Amino acid sequence: MLLETINLTKTFGGLKALEEVSLSIEKVKVTSLIGPNGAGKTTFFNCVTGMIIPTMGTSYFQGNLISNLKSYIISRRGIARTFQHSRLFSEMTVLDNVMIGGYVHSLPTNKSFLRAICRGKPYRTQENALRKKALELLDFVGIFRRFDFPSRSLSYGDKRRLEIARALASSPTLLLLDEPAAGMNSKETEELMVLIGQIRSLGITPFLIEHNMKMVMGISDHVIVLDHGVKIAEGTPQAIQGNAKVIEAYLGKTTP
Q1: Which of 96, 158, 160, 163 could join 92 in a cystine, given CB atoms 3.0 to 4.6 angstroms apart?
Q2: Are 185 and 70 in the same domain?
Q3: Domain count, the chain
């Protein structure tokens, strides 16, 4: 398994945001994590990526324990993510936003810090390589022509593409996408579905939180469902669609 969590639990005060969530993510399969608002989905992503420390439980990536590691170390291990709400540097160019994602593998070290100050040949070589890769990624996600625009000038859909490009710049094996289609129109959503398929074709495993059920059912190999921090179901999209617990979580209990 690429990613595995065992009894992952997160408590905020007296509230259990996650309760003993155990799941596995297979390589190069599209997995979607779904559930009603407040189900604990983003908290799960935050625990896996080191943004917050779980109260209990363990996470393994490629067989190695990653629980309690710093987020930048987890990123270097090969896990990248986007966020539910945009975290772009609005006044920086599109290209610079992507290049920042590439620095995760080169900083911080004493030597690289000194190279950055001196701007010597090794630094310039690294900078040129990052720039080349960033331009390739902008072409891959379809916004190459806007590379020198400030990121604030992009449309909403293109900002989401930029966030994906920046995450890909860290050369991940596993890409976590937190509601990538939120706020998109139907055309943008269809284009995003194609892009996620292209990402998978690169050998990168997409793992997404998403509320757009048409998208989830259209691209997922495996679907996992949380409700009030508890995993209530998992399986193929077809199996999930007909699962009584899932229907109840979204629609509530029906009275006879």
Answers
A1: 96
A2: yes
A3: 2
For the chain, the straight-line distance linking the first and the last C-alpha, in angstroms and rounded, comes to 43
Q: What is the pLDDT of residue 51?
A: 95
- Domain's final residue, options 169, 204, 223: 169
User: What confidence tens digit (pLDDT) does each residue in 157-197 have?
Assistant: 999 999 999 999 999 999 999 999 988 999 999 999 999 99
Is 83 within a domain? no
Residues 72 and 185 in one domain: yes
Same structural domain, 199 and 229: yes
- Nearest-CA neighbor of 98 among 138, 49, 158, 71? 138
Q: Among 117-126, 174-183, 190-199, 245-254, which is the least confidently predicted range?
A: 117-126
Print the domain residue range for 27. 1-78+172-256
User: pLDDT per residue over 38-50, tens digit each?
Assistant: 999 999 999 999 9
The answer as to whether 244 is a domain residue is: yes
Query: How do strand 15-25 and strand 31-34 relate by DSSP bridges?
Result: unpaired
Q: Where are the beta strands (DSSP E) in 26-82?
A: 31-34, 56-61, 64-65, 79-81
In a domain, 243, yes or no: yes
Q: Is the pLDDT score of 119 beyond 80? A: no
84 falls within a domain: no
Q: Shortest CA distance to 174 belongs to which of 54, 51, 25, 44?
A: 25
Q: Are 190 and 218 in contact (CB under 8 A)?
A: no
- Among all chains, which residue has been given the structure tokens 């996470």? 59
